[in-house]
Design a protein that fits this description.
The protein has 160 residues and is mainly alpha-helical. It has one domain. It is built from 6 helices and 2 strands, in the order H-H-H-H-H-E-E-H. Strands 1-2 form a two-stranded antiparallel sheet. Helix 1 runs antiparallel to helix 6, helix 3 runs antiparallel to helix 6 and helix 4 crosses helix 6. The protein is elongated, with a radius of gyration of 21 Å. The C terminus is likely disordered.
Amino acid sequence: MSYDYDQLDEPLHWGAAVLGWICPGMGQIMTGHRRRGFFSMIGIFGLFLSGVLIGGVDCVDRSEDPLWFYAQAGTGPIAFAADWANAGLLKSGKVGELVESPPSNPRMAPPLMSTFKTITVASEVGTLYCALAGLMNIVVIFDALKRRPAGLNESTRGDA
């Protein structure tokens, strides 16, 4: 097995990492690895949208599931948009009717929840898919951060 120790000296591509967080896969495309970027984009968006389709938009919830949201936030602004849609549409009662749910503490008033809230295993699967999409994008961001730009070979690196 051979190691490429020259890659350890490569600079970090912070612009590609930021762009890869804003739009998954774009960091790879920015460094010239278009095919890798498009496949990453399709995989991450497909996994996230599958999670939302399976579990509903309420599977991305910053206030009720903060630990899951940390992983989901790795997909970038799309996770924050889904959380905004959950809070602005479902939790506010603009979509669906708000009904009382069983209280976890009998001394407190029962919390209100939308009739469109998913409460089955589908919600858990959707939450997991969205979190996996975020974690997958974090790996892709790290790859874009350190990957040598396409077309940069030994003769164009400037080492003499």
